[in-house]
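Changelog-adjacent note: as of this version, every example in the card shows the full chain rather than a window. The one below runs 324 residues end to end.
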Amino acid sequence: MEVSYENEGYDNDYQSKSKGSILTRKNNTMPIWGNERTMNLNTLILTNIQSSHYFKVNLYELKTYHEVIDEIYYKVQHLEPWEKGSRKTSGQTGMCGGVRGVGAGGIVSTAFCLLYKLFTLKLTRKQVTGLITHCDSPYIRALGFMYIRYTQPPGDLWDWYESFLDDEEEMDVRAGGGQTMTIGNILKSFLFKLEWYSTLFPRIPVPIQQQMEKKMSEKYPPIVDETPRRNVPEKNFSRDRDDHRNRGDLSDTSRPRERIERRERSHRDYRDRDYERKSSHANSRERSPYVSRRDDYKKSSSRSPKYGSSKRRDRDDYKSRSKY
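Full-length structure tokens:
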């Protein structure tokens, strides 16, 4: 006999969200994936939960599913595994961070104590669905989704979470406050991030992770920027590359000729430049007022091997003229 849970105490809003993927299951008993004793929790967290006074005394008195939900409603204020300021990790080495160092773990949070309490009740599919669709508190829903993340097979996670990825209900997930997240963003973090506030979720096999990423990209395709661009001509790199290659097709005779002409042109330029520099230097000497005075001094004091000094030359000229 098939059992259907489509109309047994569920909200109409959830009926439109779920699309019948979860509620039309034949079996109400939920399987436990992984370790059925530890709920796949971190060993340090589990040991602190089992040894805490709150779990051993307060939660021990709660026997029913609805009593635990009421406790979540009144006591849970964040989703971290440790209370604020109680987790000290500096200077811990060796076995201080393991099971042996229970005190090193700090004070385990109320949320994780109640999460493990739900695990001890062995929830049915109907009860888990009631958790994730509860309308009184977002923390009740969040613990329901966290219960699914820890206990259900990785292949079923997408079916549980898909209808709630766009949920905009907000909550503060950090101990002490300061980090508000929506239900949708929390579920995306559960699916694609292994770490959650100093603890780890069970690993998802790589093929299943790739399938979920593909479904995620189909559900949320990347947004293409349609901003109009300026009319800037794009540079054709392929054409420039072809032009560069075509330069290598020049004949071997044209290359030396161009090189020789370039060298001769540079020689002519250097020669004209040297000529202009020398002519400008000569013209500057002629225009200088000190040139004639300096030349007269050289003439008066110079001694020629043939004629001697200028005074002697003048005297000889005078004697030759006096003879005639």
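Structural remarks: The mean pLDDT is 76.
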